[in-house]
Amino acid sequence: MSTTEIIAALDLVHPGQKITIRYHVLPHLEVMTSVATCVKRQDKAVDLRVPDLDENEVIRLPVPPNHSWHALQILKLTPHEYFKLPLKPYSECNLQPDVDAKAIIYVDGSTCHEKGGPASSAISVFTLVGSQVHRQNFGRFYPGATSNCVAAAAMLAALRFAKMHVPRDGNITIVTTSQLVYKHVTGEQRFKDSKLVTVGQQLNDIVDASFALRISFCHLHWAHKNYADEICKSVLNLGKPLGDLPELFMDLPYVNTPRHRTQRVLPPVVEPQLPEPMDIQSIEDFAKLRTFKARTSVPPEAELLWANLVRRSAQAVVAATDMVERDKNIIELMLLPMRYLPANVRTTRIVTHLKSGTPFHIDHRKQSQEVRERAADREMHRLKEQIHRLGRDGKIKTANKLIRNQATRDDMPHDEKVEGLKKKFVNKDTADESEEVFAIRQVPIFTGFEVRSALRKINRQCATGADGWSKDHLMSALRGSEGLDDILGSIFTTIASQRLSPLLEDVLRCGRLVGIPKPDNAGVRPITIAALFMKVFGTMSMARDDVKPSQHQYAIGHKDGCLKVIHQIRDELANLHKNDPTAEYVAIKVDISNAFNELARHTVRKELKEHCETMKQFFRVAYGGSSPLIVYGPDGFSMINMEEGIRQGDATSTYLFCIGVDRALRELLELKYRCWMFCDDLTLIVRKCEVEATLEAVKRAFAKVGLRVNEAKLDIYGPTDVRTKPFVLLGADLACTEEFTEKQLLKQSQYFELLDRIPMHAQLKAVLLRVCGAPRLRYITSAMPPNSTKRLTEAFDKGTVSALSKIVQLSEEDLEASGLLHDTMGAGIPKYTELREKLYAAARNYAIDGVHTPVELVTKGDDSRQPLARHNMDAQWLWYDGSMSPAEFCTAFCVRLGIVQPHLRVHPARCDCGKTITNDVDQIQHTFTCDQFTSTTHTRRHNMLRDEICRVCMSFGISAVKEPTCYLYEEGRKRPDIIFGTHRTLVTDVTIVNPQGEPGEAAKTADEKKRKQHGAAVERQQHVFIPGACEAYGLIGPGMVKLVKELAHNLPLSTQFIFRRTMMNAIATVLARSRASGIYGTRYRRDHIMPH
After folding, report:
1. Which of 267, 382, 578, 766 sits most deeply, having the most CB atoms within 10 A of its CB?
2. How far is the C-alpha of 105 from the C-alpha of 127, rounded, in Å?
């Protein structure tokens, strides 16, 4: 068992309780079973006495590192029944809890601020109903109260529940995490705060002599997680009571949040009336709204409000009384991003509109006029804004793909593109009229788990459909609203199982159609982006469907299917030629004309008859009628109706297409042809003399599913052929021709040229360079032999270094000489010239032998030539978020490489302290060591870190006061840096130290030093001191990591992850900024203060 599994198994174990333990002691493998006894608990560790091991020695689980019992391997732990109801390990109690207690009640209170503001009280009641444990939760929301008040109110609610609803012949156990409340109810110490007088008196009155004999009060350490705590946070997030017994909770005096200083606090979750739904009468009305760009992610400050809005809109769908109201509410739910999250609006305005429940006003005439006015000169500006927006949302791959497509595409006027797209779609097949369509049937209810699982499978980098919903939108809503996934599951079940209005059917079937120009003016490729709700619906349907296409269809069920096809065909041709050189085996690449758009829907429907009912109903909803496709342009949009075929552009469409053509593929396999197929790309290996017969067989097979073979694009390749024309199979050239290499070199050149021209942030450009090779070049080097990709990789590596040198204002020679250009502790840019052989071998081994060999794209820093490289432990700040200026980023990036930019170099120089500076590394090291060398002193860098921590905390609603003077020290006048207004008052003192020895050693030493300085004084005030040391080159010490986690625990569950990520990114960024500021300070001091 792992440490986590052991802790979970022992979570409810108490001293005196028996545990059956299965184990073995290395090196012996004989499994033993013993009955152990718990003798002591210390937080999550449990001390056991195991007679079969040692009668006298106590064994602690989990076994501490380097302990004498490290060879003990635990296989299974089974606690014996002790308490019939779940009782967490308590630290103290007034009476020993009854093992047969009729009820165990957990109580807790939660506040946004310890001394006032929105708060909640909650109790979680466990009782026995027959032999089953029954749990009830009750809670109340208070607009303003202190933490002590809500904890006391929760205790009073528990006593009232026990007196009114627990049988008089049974005992009760009440558990609290509040030491103050525990001491009051046990009589150790009475409330002294004036705000607690009333509740204290009621607690005294309700616990009479006879009632007191039945109650055991227990104090629970916070580390064991009070069951009521999650209820408190849920009530606090929702802003409304929970349960049907509101009389349990008393009224409390209103206490507002103390005003320490101006801060941007998360607004409380409110529930204003939903606005009137938009008047959408046609699919054209719906399509117009897409011209108003929506953000692809929700600002952290607005997540709770957004989640609340989505939940209420979803509840309105479920609560609808007729089909008209239901369908109108579904459409309104799909419009939320465009109505509440416009792209070009400040976050504060979005928060205000979400708080009041007021959507943004949409003026079609004003929007279209602005588009026309800017159409002439907005292309580069639009591209820049789009890339920056994608960068801020973390969608770097999408941004890179956008640049690559923009750089290599052939320009095509919008009207010409629309005409080309219209030609791709065919009229409805007359044979389809006689086919029986799927009837509406009930499908099993979609669960919240299915909704979340399907959403996780969807690529967050994918573009948004006509509805504007992105994966991040829905993930933010699910994080901030408990139970929303089940409500959405109910809505999806309704869509799948009930009749829908024609307008809603059109909205669900509509897609945003994008035309991608093909090379050499070969037309346009139609890609349809479906609505997010249809993607989720389709993904859930695929998960339920257990009927898969043939194993020779490599688009479904094959990881790296393209590479498998390429390597297997190359290997098969080589083996056949080796075994029989005279047979003249060749590969035939067959092009299916306009395959997705011409595939007969009745063919797919016939194949789906053997599939699950959910997939049938998805096909009915998605393809039961014509699909309106919307093509957006600079002056509006055009509509194209798709009556036949399958949309190309998402996983479910690919799945349905593969199901539809599987009949043709099976027919070819029955004829004993060697076939490989990836979606609509078919490749066969036959003898050269059998090509014509094979082509006729392929034509017959695909004609039965309504598809045509384009003979003009038929291509044949033999392993002994000498050819100059590429044989491009799934993006790789099997013939390894110079023409293919030249085309790829041209595309690379165009990419780097456009990247240089786009006026975007240096940090974003550097991020794009770090990942730009991953999508395309890595694929080509994995698919083609190393000797054929040498020129390509050399040119790419050179182009990357050249582009980076322009960004950070360094010469290419300096970058290469640093030794960290291709190191994870440096720039982290892969060097494909050295990787191509490894990538090709790994891909071939996986395709032929099924052996997966991971390939590290960058080195790990162990062999770095820079002495400081191993201390570059922070990489968060390298990702673009807009918080650093381009100059700060470039300087900090160069420091990471151990280089000082030429315009900031001051060496050779002599510091006032006597140190002689002769090179870049000396300048960097001395900058962070000696305050006489730079105007950015230790104190200034310290203050930058301190202020940034305060800023982030206050932006999340956590009060942060700098340099409190409320602590008394035995020696000298000292004070910590920050005191936080959290549930348990946290205090920290931050510092930035220079690294010494191994990474992290200096930070640990500084943490201990700070703990000795401030720990005793802070703890005398019953506050918690956590030191916050960081190392100058970016390593965040363990104390600071712990501090961030503790701060996060004071926030709603839905925002804890976002806070931790934001805070860690902010700390890493401010440390990088401080390094840049230090280097700039040396230049300033050299020019203005130090003698020349």
Report:
1. 766
2. 9
